[in-house]
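Postdoc handover notes: sequence design on the structure in folder B. Input tokens:
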């Protein structure tokens, strides 16, 4: 991130915080699966043959995931270090913006929805409508869905963070994986700031 927000302490403090309550009390939950090659001489398990790692940054105070932050790995002085970085196309909008709630429908092809019944249905419908945004960044409440031929129309309430109504509309349109229709879009009050850290991101 050379030349980016990570380059100064002031800039770092502007995005290294919870986008909902502005707390800087964060933690990273890392889930790792790997297949390591065993060295026959030393018994060391080294040289990953295959590895999958997923990291989620979470606010300790309000327990919300932080999709504007990601964990990156670097080699520094011969050792592997990890560092939390801002996701460039999200952090400013989410930290500086306010919540917007949209009542909308997304019409998608039926094969984009894994399941539309049972305990996994809500996540499957939200993912089918908005992809990763629907399950990671947005707060989605699927009200109902209906089948129209080979298509599925997903009716939902969506909360997202943006700095203006135009930006909120753009974010929804860019995330939609089908035909989007917005019935209403209204700005909501920001949740109260945490008292555990600085309360103003500016």
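Designed sequence:
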């Amino acid at each position: 991130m050379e030349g980016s927000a990570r380059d100064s302490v002031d800039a770092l403090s502007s995005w290294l915080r919870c986008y909902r309550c502005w707390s800087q009390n964060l933690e990273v939950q890392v889930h790792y699966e790997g297949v390591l090659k065993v060295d026959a001489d030393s018994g060391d398990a080294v040289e990953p043959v295959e590895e999958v790692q997923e990291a989620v940054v979470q606010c300790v105070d309000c327990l919300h995931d932080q999709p504007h932050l990601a964990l990156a790995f670097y080699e520094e002085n011969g050792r592997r270090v990890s560092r939390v970085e801002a996701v460039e196309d999200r952090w400013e909008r989410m930290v500086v913006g306010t919540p917007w709630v949209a009542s909308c429908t997304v019409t998608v092809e039926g094969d984009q929805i894994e399941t539309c019944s049972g305990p996994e249905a809500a996540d499957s419908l939200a993912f089918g409508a908005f992809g990763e945004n629907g399950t990671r960044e947005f707060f989605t409440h699927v009200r109902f869905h209906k089948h129209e031929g080979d298509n599925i129309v997903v009716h939902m309430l969506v909360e997202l963070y943006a700095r203006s109504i135009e930006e909120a509309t753009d974010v929804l349109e860019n995330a939609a994986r089908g035909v989007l229709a917005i019935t209403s879009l209204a700005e909501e009050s920001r949740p109260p700031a945490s008292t555990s850290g600085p309360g103003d991101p500016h």
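Context for whoever picks this up: Residues 1-10, 197-202 have pLDDT under 50 and may be disordered. Don't rerun without checking with the PI first.
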